[in-house]
UniProtKB/TrEMBL annotation:
Keywords: Amino-acid transport, ATP-binding, Cell membrane, Membrane, Nucleotide-binding, Transport. It is a peripheral membrane protein. Residues 2-240 form the ABC transporter domain. GO terms for cellular component: plasma membrane. This is ABC transporter. Gene3D superfamilies: P-loop containing nucleotide triphosphate hydrolases. GO terms for molecular function: ABC-type amino acid transporter activity; ATP binding; ATP hydrolysis activity. Belongs to the ABC transporter superfamily. The lineage of its organism: Bacteria, Pseudomonadati, Pseudomonadota, Alphaproteobacteria, Rhodospirillales. It comes from Nitrospirillum viridazoti CBAmc. It is found in: Cell membrane. Pfam families: ABC_tran.
Length: 257
């Protein structure tokens, strides 16, 4: 279980996370919604141990991310995909995926390469192993980013606005992949997901729970159907206001097997 307990994070005088508590249990797909600036990315960075906390505690399967030695072990349990793809431009797609499993997890190259090819095939990029990131579209690059995260065999997959730099068609490609991962998840298989997105309709379809961050406070944490119920999440004016500003849902693309 991933447990965020009363986390406070300040930048100077600005309290960006103000006593946030959140748990993600194995098998859950939890979506974080909230306006720009509400603290979503900061929360993800705190979970990754990239920001020192000003209060509270974060544990990943019992490992405290504020303790450097425990953090090193906690980092092996989760993988994060960010908005910008951060692929190495001078390395092939295959090498981008295999680098960390080989160097960090010390897994044998042939095993990691076989997994990378299987992952690429699963996101419709079977023929792109030897391409360079610059030869791919944004949507293809983000699909490689997802493969790179999955190649670490993470127990927890964190996704921070992975489609917000993409046009609608590419967004649809990437969401289709995440939908497949989530569906496998609800079947009891794959990776537990903590998902920051503005794709509300998509989140509604794939999430077990939705939480809403408002100015650094987590004001609602509900099972998905209750989040969208009139006497649940929609009873909150801030949430109604947020949802009313959202763009219409992106269509899902078919990804060839
Ligand atoms: N390194 C930083 N230094 C100062 N302020 C920051 C830093 N990172 C984020 N912030 C501020 O914290 C607030 C929350 O940011 P962020 O977590 O990126 O929000 P979100 O991802 O929900 O859009 C914003 O007001 C942002 O300007
Ligand atoms: Mg953000």
């Amino acid at each position: 279980m991933m447990a965020v307990e009363g986390v406070v994070k300040r930048f100077g005088a600005h309290t960006v996370l103000d006593g946030v508590s959140l748990t993600v249990a194995p098998g859950e797909v939890v979506t974080i919604l909230g306006s720009s600036g509400s603290g979503k990315s900061t929360l993800i960075r705190c979970i990754n141990g990239l920001e020192a906390l000003d209060g509270g505690r974060i544990t990943v399967d019992g490992l405290d991310v504020s303790d450097p030695r425990q953090l090193a072990r906690a980092r092996r349990l989760s993988a994060t995909v960010f908005q910008m793809f951060n692929l190495y431009p001078h390395m092939t797609v295959l090498r981008n995926i295999t680098l960390a499993p080989e160097l960090v997890l010390r897994r044998p190259r042939d095993e990691v390469e076989a997994q990378a090819h299987a992952l690429l095939a699963s996101v419709g990029l079977a023929g792109k192993a030897d391409s360079y990131p610059g030869q791919l579209s944004g949507g293809q690059r983000q699909r490689v980013g997802i493969c790179r995260a999955l190649a670490m065999n993470p127990r927890y997959l964190l996704l921070d606005e992975v489609t917000s730099a993409l046009d609608p068609e590419m967004t649809a490609e990437v969401l289709a992949i995440l939908g497949k991962l989530a569906a496998r998840q609800s079947g009891g298989g794959g990776t537990t997901m903590l998902f920051v997105t503005h794709e509300v309709e998509f989140a509604r379809r794939i999430s077990t729970r939705i939480v809403f961050l408002d100015q650094g406070r987590l004001i609602v944490d509900l099972p998905t159907d209750q989040f969208f119920a009139a006497d649940g999440g929609l009873a909150h004016p801030r949430i109604r206001q947020f949802l009313s500003k959202m763009a219409p849902a992106a269509p899902l693309a078919e990804i060839p097997a």
